[in-house]
Design brief:
single chain; alpha/beta; seven-stranded mixed β-sheet; four-stranded mixed β-sheet; 44% helix; 16% strand; globular; binds pyridoxal-5'-phosphate; transferase; pyridoxal phosphate binding; PyrdxlP-dep_Trfase_major
Length: 406
C-alpha cells in the first residue's frame, strides 16, 4: 500500500466537501483578549469571537499570579503520574475546591475534560456488571468514545427527549445497573437538558446519572457550579464532570461525585493512572480561577449582558440565530462551503475570527458560526461584529429573519 497516497486521498475528500480543517494560528494578547494576532502570510490583528475562554479568565491577573508563583516555587512539570511522585499539595487542594464547588464529597482531576469523560464513562460502564448506558444523541465525542471503549451495551435516546429516555428505561429490569449520560448546556446548539426530570427518571428506574457540565461550570449558578447548581440539583446527580479549560480559562478536567466513586476511578481508570499529572502551575491557576468565580458575580453578569446584547443586535438586523436559554449563539449557515467562505472573509476583510463549525462536529446542512460573546468584548467589538455579519448576509444572499415578530 502507498500509505501517503491513502492519507492524501482521504484529505482530498475532506477538501472537496468543505470539511477540511484549517487552523487559525493565533497569538492572544494577554490583558487585551479577545484581541490577538493571527499569523498567516502576514501578521494581522484580529478579534476572537469563538473562544471558549468565556469569561476571559485566561488573562485574569489572580490566575496568572498564582501560576507564576507556582512555577517559581516548584518548577515546570509535575514529574510523574499522580501515583508516582506527581501528586502535589496543589492537586489535593484543587480536588477539594472542586468537590466543594459541586457539593460533593470528592473530586478527581484529569489532564483534560476529554480524558475525564473518556476515562470515567469508560471505566464505570466497563466495570459495573451488565451496565446499560443510556446516552443522549448529541453527547460530546469524548463521552461517546468512553462509552464505546467500555464495550457495555448502549442505547442512544433522542436528544433531550424524556419520553424516549423513559421508554428505554422502562424496558429494562429495575435491578439492572444503568447509567444515563448527558450534558447540561449542549455546546453546538446551546440548549439545556431537563436535569430535574432526568433525575426523576433515574430515581424511578434505578439509574445513575452522569452530567457533563463543561459548558456551564464557572458560568451558571451562584458560585459557578453549573446548571445543576443554578437549579438546586447537584445533590441529585451522581457524577458531575467539568473542564478547567473553558470558563475557568486554564486546562484540565475533573469529575465530582461520592468518595467511593472517585476512589474507584482513581484506582481503576487507566486514563487517570497512566499519565503524567497536570503541572503544579496549571493546577494553581485553575484553583485561583475556581475560587475567584465562586466569590465574584461580576464576570457572570457581564457575560450574560454581552450575550443578550449580541442577540438583540442580530434580531434587529434579522441575522438568524438559534434561540436557547444559554450563552452560545449559533448562527446557522447550512452549507459547509458558504460557512467556510464567510469565516474566511470575516477574518481577511474584517479582522474577525469565527471558526466555521462543520461536519462531523455538527450534522450536515447545519453548518454554522458559533459565536461566544464574553465580558471582554467591548461595545466597539460588538458594533464591528454586527456590521460585518450584516454586510456578509447581503453579499452572500443569505436569508434574514423578519425584523420583529409582529
Ligand atoms: C470541550 C468539551 C469537552 C472536553 O473538555 P476539554 O477540557 O476541552 O478536553 C467535554 N465535553 C464537552 C461537551 C465539550 O464541549
Amino acid at each position: 500500500m502507498n500509505y501517503d497516497a491513502f492519507f492524501k486521498a482521504s484529505l482530498d475528500k475532506l477538501r472537496t466537501s468543505g470539511d477540511y480543517r484549517v487552523f487559525a494560528n493565533l497569538e492572544r494578547h494577554n490583558g487585551n483578549f479577545p484581541h490577538a494576532t493571527a499569523r498567516a502570510e502576514h501578521a494581522q490583528k484580529v478579534t476572537i469571537w469563538c473562544s471558549n475562554d468565556y469569561l476571559g479568565m485566561g488573562q485574569n491577573p489572580t490566575v496568572l499570579n498564582a501560576m507564576h508563583d507556582a512555577i517559581d516555587a516548584c518548577g515546570a512539570g509535575a514529574g510523574g503520574t499522580r501515583n508516582i511522585s506527581g501528586t502535589t499539595q496543589y492537586h489535593v487542594q484543587l480536588e477539594e475546591e472542586l468537590a466543594d464547588l459541586h457539593g460533593k464529597p470528592a473530586a478527581l482531576l484529569f489532564t483534560s475534560g476529554y480524558l475525564s469523560n473518556w476515562a470515567a464513562l469508560g471505566t464505570l460502564a466497563a466495570r459495573i456488571p451488565d451496565c446499560l448506558v443510556l446516552s443522549d444523541a448529541l453527547n460530546h465525542a469524548s463521552m461517546i468514545e468512553g462509552i464505546r471503549h467500555s464495550k457495555a451495551e448502549r442505547q442512544i435516546w433522542k436528544h433531550n427527549d424524556l419520553a424516549d429516555l423513559e421508554a428505554k428505561l422502562a424496558q429494562q429490569p429495575l435491578d439492572r445497573p444503568k447509567l444515563i449520560a448527558f450534558e447540561s448546556v449542549y455546546s453546538m446548539d446551546g440548549d439545556i437538558a431537563p436535569i430535574a426530570e432526568i433525575c426523576d427518571l433515574a430515581e424511578k428506574y434505578n439509574a445513575m446519572t452522569y452530567l457533563d457540565e463543561v459548558h456551564a461550570v464557572g458560568l451558571y449558578g451562584p458560585r459557578g457550579g453549573g446548571i445543576a447548581e443554578q437549579e438546586g440539583l447537584m445533590h441529585r446527580v451522581t457524577v458531575i464532570e467539568g473542564t478547567l479549560g473553558k470558563a475557568f480559562g486554564v486546562v484540565g478536567g475533573y469529575v465530582a461525585a461520592s468518595a467511593e466513586l472517585c476512589d474507584f476511578l482513581r484506582s481503576f481508570a487507566s486514563g487517570f493512572i497512566f499519565t503524567t499529572a497536570l503541572p503544579p502551575a496549571v493546577v494553581a491557576g485553575a484553583t485561583a480561577s475556581v475560587r475567584h468565580l465562586k466569590a465574584s458575580q461580576k464576570e457572570r453578569q457581564a457575560h450574560a449582558e454581552r450575550v443578550a446584547e449580541v442577540r438583540a443586535r442580530f434580531d434587529a438586523l434579522g441575522i438568524p440565530h438559534v434561540e436557547n436559554p444559554g450563552h452560545i449563539i449559533p448562527v446557522i449557515v447550512g452549507d459547509a462551503m458558504k460557512c467556510k467562505f464567510i469565516s474566511d472573509i470575516l477574518m481577511k476583510d474584517y479582522g474577525i475570527y469565527i471558526q466555521p463549525i462543520n461536519y462531523p462536529t455538527v450534522p450536515r446542512g447545519t453548518e454554522r458560526l458559533r459565536i461566544t460573546p464574553s465580558p471582554v468584548h467591548s461595545p466597539a467589538d460588538i458594533d464591528a461584529l454586527v456590521a460585518a455579519l450584516s454586510d456578509l448576509w447581503t453579499q452572500c444572499e443569505l436569508a434574514r429573519k423578519p425584523m420583529a415578530a409582529q
